[in-house]
Design a protein that fits this description.
35% helix; binds pyridoxal-5'-phosphate; alpha/beta; Aspartate Aminotransferase, domain 1; globular; 11 helices; Aspartate Aminotransferase, domain 2; 7-stranded mixed beta sheet; 4-stranded antiparallel beta sheet; single chain; 15 strands; 2 domains
Length: 412
């Protein structure tokens, strides 16, 4: 009899988004007359079409694929050199950050990379994640057996949760004791908080002191508007010795349906083998990618390259500024309604405190029933998310204006 991976049985069966879906369906069935009024500000997916520069690059790449002379089969597993070069040059070296072309690994998504990266780390690492958290960081560790069972609150034994609260501005602080692998997401999903330079410096100092590795998720880098906020962990001195950075074209170029992302593994980043030797992680990730991955489609890579053209850059700015404008409207509306608000300045997520007496799910039900708007309850992202909800700015301007009006009219 084949044995299954018992770790999967520990997973809390995809609770948050199925439960949101269930409650929305129940509401719509019970209230068919307002079904068409329901506006979804729940899931973190972009809504606007791909930039014209991307569409042009895609058309050209499709035509190339239809001609023997310019057809492309398998490409390099780590990504085409022209794309790795464009990434390293535009996202790092142009900002005086030292990242070599061959430290960039192109992939089909940061979500996949966040999970796959665990392949190159041993068992027995002490894992630290923020709370509230992007669930992928936790569940991928559960799947590979880095945790025990979950408790009644959904917290897994063996994971070190870093509390993010209003008191620390939803940016986690280094723990007192040692941990080995640290997930940081800045700007943050779900809270919209962005770590300042001193906050990231404290993390890099901690990681170097403890020989820890920071897994830095910068999927929302393009949304940073405040001048002091670092765009890359490599802006912090010493980070090349302790950090891996994940970036994605999903939220800047609108690639959630097209798929392209990348991961930076500096060659100077080391970890310890079980025999106690310090070894670089870069060759392990290269081996992992060339063995288990067969590259992103030529079309997606040409499309990603087009984001770095002059036209592509200005179209990305317009997309991002559109969503940030939405976020500003949502922030203003929630404040006007007398609610406590974080985020929405360096991120497309607005993190709103529920008025006292309301749990996250009670606020969800009230906003759905009375404003016909779907938000995401903060408690679904971790116990520290209780008492908060996330409003996504990924929507059309007209929908966001309507949501803002309804939030302001809501009586708690
Ligand atoms: C959207 C998102 C990503 C990007 O994932 P892709 O797989 O590249 O689409 C990564 N991290 C976080 C926290 C996100 O919200």
């Amino acid at each position: 009899m084949a044995l299954l991976n018992d770790n999967y049985l520990k997973l809390k069966a995809g609770y948050l988004f199925p439960e949101i879906g269930r409650r929305v369906r129940a509401f719509v069935e019970a209230n068919p007359s307002v079904a068409s009024r329901v506006i979804r500000c729940g899931i973190g997916d972009v809504t606007e079409p791909l930039p014209p520069a991307v569409i042009r690059a895609l058309h050209a790449a499709v035509d190339e694929m239809g001609v023997r002379e310019s057809f492309h089969g398998y490409g390099p597993e780590q990504g085409y050199e022209w794309l790795r070069h464009a990434i390293a040059e535009n996202d790092f070296r142009r900002h005086a950050l030292n990242v070599a072309d061959d430290e960039v690994f192109v992939s089909d998504g940061s979500k996949c990379d966040c999970g796959a990266i665990l392949d190159i780390f041993g068992d027995g690492n002490r894992i630290a994640v923020p709370d509230p958290v992007y669930p992928v960081y936790v569940d991928t560790n559960v799947m590979v057996g880095h945790t025990g069972e979950a408790d009644a609150n959904g917290a897994y034994a063996g994971i070190h949760y870093l509390p993010c609260t209003a008191a620390n501005g939803f940016v986690p602080e280094p723990p007192d004791g040692p941990v080995d692998i640290i997930y940081l997401c800045s700007p943050n999903n779900p809270t919209g908080a962005a770590a300042t330079r001193p906050q990231l410096e404290a993390w890099v100092r901690y990681a170097r002191q403890h020989g820890a590795v920071i897994l830095f998720d910068a999927a929302y880098e393009a949304y940073i508007t405040e001048p002091g906020v670092p765009h890359s962990i490599y802006e912090i001195e010493g980070a090349r010795d302790c950090a891996i950075e994940f970036r994605s074209f999903s939220k800047n170029g609108g690639f959630t349906g097209l798929r392209c992302a990348y991961t930076v593994v500096p060659k100077s980043l080391m970890a310890r083998s079980s025999t106690g030797e310090l070894r670089p992680l870069h060759p392990l990730w290269l081996r992992r990618m060339t063995t288990k991955f067969n590259g992103v489609s030529y079309l997606s890579q040409r499309a990603a390259e087009a984001l770095y053209s002059v036209q592509g850059q200005s179209e990305v700015r317009a997309l991002v500024e559109g969503y940030l404008g939405n976020a500003a409207l949502l922030v203003a509306a929630a404040r006007e309604a007398g609610l406590t608000v974080f985020g929405g300045v360096n991120a497309p997520y607005v993190w709103v405190g529920t008025p006292s007496g309301y749990t996250s799910w009670q606020a969800f039900d009230k906003i759905l029933a009375e404003a016909h708007v779907v938000i995401t309850p903060g408690s679904g992202f971790g116990s520290q998310g209780e008492g908060w909800f996330r409003v996504s700015a990924f929507n059309s301007r007209s929908n966001v204006e309507e949501v803002a009006r309804r939030l302001k009219a809501l009586r708690w």
